[in-house]
Specification:
Elements lengths: L4 E4 L9 H17 L2 E4 L11 H14 L6 E3 L4 E3 L11 H13 L3 E4 L2 E4 L4 E7 L4 E7 L3 E5 L3 E5 L5 E4 L7 H11 L4 E5 L6 H10 L6 E5 L2 E2 L18 H6 L4 H9 L14 H7 L10 E2 L2 H13 L3 H26 L4 H19 L1 H12 L20 H4 L1 H4 L7 H8 L4 H11 L8 H14 L4 H13 L7 H23 L1
Parallel strand pairs: 1-2, 12-13, 14-15
Antiparallel strand pairs: 3-4, 5-6, 6-11, 7-8, 9-10
Helix pairs in contact: 1-8, 4-5, 7-9, 10-11, 10-12, 16-18, 16-19, 17-19, 18-19
The chain binds one RNA strand of 75 nucleotides through strand 6, strand 10, strand 11, helix 4 and strand 15.
Amino acid sequence: MPPVRVRFAPSPTGFFHIGSARTALFNWLYARHTGGVFILRIEDTDQARNSEEFLRLIYDSMRWLGLDWDEGPEPATNGQRGAHGPYRQSQRAETYRSYLQMLRDAGRAYDKDGAVWFKLEGERYRTFDDHRKKEVEKVKCGPVVIEDQVRGRVERMEDEDFVIFRSDGNPVFHFVNVVDDIAMNVTHVIRGEDHLSNTSKHVRLYEGFGAQPPVFAHIPLILKSPEMGPGKMSKRDKGALIEEYRQRYFLPEAVVNYLSLLGWNPGDDREKMPIKEIEKLFDFPGINQSNAKFDSRKLDHMNMLYTLEEDRDRYVENAREFADERGKFLESQAKKLAESHPENANIARGNAAFLREAVADESYFRNVVSLFRAKGFGTEALFPSDPSKSFSDLFSATVYFFSDEYPMNQEVKSKVLAKGDPKARLDDLLQALPGMDFSSDLAIETAIKDLATAKGLGFGDYQAVARLAVTGTNAGPSITSIFRLLGKVRVDRRLRQFRESV
RNA sequence: GCCCCCAUCGUCUAGCGGCUAGGACAGCGGCUUCUCAAGCCGUUAACCGGGGUUCGAUUCCCCGUGGGGGCGCCA
């Protein structure tokens, strides 16, 4: 058995979306599973629609996901890695020319209407095509038989010559795809089911070159979730772009784990698995035949599982980076808005300044972020997808840690104030505060419990009103941690201020 | 219109002729903790329909229906 060589061949004509990522992942997994070679090949023959920016996004997204390639472009050096390059089709014109000559020499290519066509073998006849509303020439030949590793035996008739070089002189997808797979010794083609119908063309081309077709594995597509409507996931659908998850600081392991489960499973109940485990178990028999609908809630859940066990330092680093990025974004917004909407510009500038201050005290920032990490913050709550809500994120959830100007949730306020005797509880706390030990969560908890016991009450009678006073809301970390991080001075000031307002 | 693929809870799926049809997400109910989460316990929910084959079909075959994809000088 020759070593496995698989490839992922995206074209840089748009954002990198989860369908592409999943195809890349399955190829990568198969290479790693078999100890084979994973090739990245850029299919950029359509100059009109290509862009260097989208190309960069492919590299970045793949690296973020951890899908390293053994052969392919070397973007850092503008070079190539591997012996079968170049790996950008825009640089392979010579190869295509010589392969075309092979076809011409074998009498399998001819010119028509300025384009070059691939010639099928068989008896010819003309017929009217209803769909295309024109007469076409068909060729009588046997069906193409594909032994697909996922679909099983698939037969399809390929009965029309097709274009392999456009009249503008550029080769078309079917041609370059097959030529490169031959030239790069690709042994297994793993791609989306939308290519299944194309495969008959490809097999005919392999035959035309006298080459052995690779093993095909057509994997199921990722469809929209029911609430998004019918059809397959497209770049416009919410949650379709890998870039979005990166910007929202999803953990790439979580995204990869979720994606691996879309159309594949290990054959048992396991879902959350380290990538090494997935590598070990991944193989064609585990791949499903039916399409899978995308479910963002399950992805969120997977991300939460990873977040909860995420290494603390990296989590804090991510938060810091987020604050930094968001700060820059806000500053640039402020600059843009300065003349047209000065008020909004001021808000943006203020928020940016806030973020700068928040990260300035490193250990304090670290402590605050860690508190939220322990609560599984990591998805929408922490890093929202909607940039217009520029402040409804970690820093709206934590604003009271960094500023005395935190919003008071009026709904929560009226609810909390309606229960028991909040004013008395605030007075109790203010009175006990000077003597309280703030050295640890446990010490604070003990102090509040002692106070409650002395008054014939429970911890909860103090928790809600204290939380409201110092945070303005009813959600967040434990009140003891909040007290400890804020420190006695600020707690005292806020309790006092709040007491006066009620 | 033609061709190809697919079909188990709302969603991801296990099942590979005999199961009380299992798990996960979401939902619902409860417990626990100082709130919100998380966690724990419980619970609602599925074999698309019709024919065969078989002692027996979710499982194999055919038809229908439904879903998806393709039918470019896009990739």
